[in-house]
User: Fold this.
Amino acid sequence: MSAEDDEIEKSSAPLMEHLIELRTRLMWSIGGFFVAFLVCFFFAKQLFNLLVIPFKWATNWAGLDPHKVELIYTAPQEFFFTQIKLAMFGGLVIAFPVIASQIYKFVAPGLYKNERAAFLPFLIASPVLFLMGASLVYFFFTPMVMWFFLAMQQAGTDDQVQISLLPKVSEYLSLIMTLIFSFGLVFQLPVVTTLMARVGMVTSQGLADKRKWAIVIAFVVAAVLTPPDPVSQIGLALPTILLYEISIWTARMIEKKREQERVAREKQDADDSAADPQSQAASTSLEGTGSADKAG
Assistant:
């Protein structure tokens, strides 16, 4: 076997090990998602009724009877596919800890100990922030948005026809999922900017200087991600701006800690440098003493 073939053989072994490890992690991730999907599909109707509760709150705010909330589907298969869509979304949310842990187990062996210690808190903070955004959607913004749409209804009189809101199950679920995804994504902003600050890609001063542009971009992104109503757009833009300010603060804290570590390291280097001449002088003195003893 030639030297080139031997080198290829040595490099292919770790590659095969990585591919086997990747396959194992993918199997665990897909298996976790599939189990969560089956559980969510079995309880799909109960989960959908749970998502309708904010609509009932909005109906109560509008002065209507919350017990008469009605949703429709206009195609025979619509509600079935809506349940599948809900089960997939719920399965992904429930299985996220499993998927994230498998990603971490695959990546962790290639990281240094301090890098693993720095990466793990962000892996925990990401789902927590996503749940915070989802809770804000569920308990506040969905009732506000549905109340805004319910306010457009028109009572039937002699001079005007009756116009009532009868949302389709698929469209209502799409609205809820869009809001949850949008707010959950925006709530990852501190995690992303903190990671970028740790690796030196952004600075707190740079983020502060671009604050005006960030405000404009926040409203543009809110207009793209949310339904075309001012309540949800402003409701997403304002938390985004607040999270941007939190990101500036976290970046400043990271820079402050990095500066403290640099000063401590320079002090340690200075102390080591000062100790070296003393050690050399002591060594020279001992050598001189030894030479004098031998001469005597």
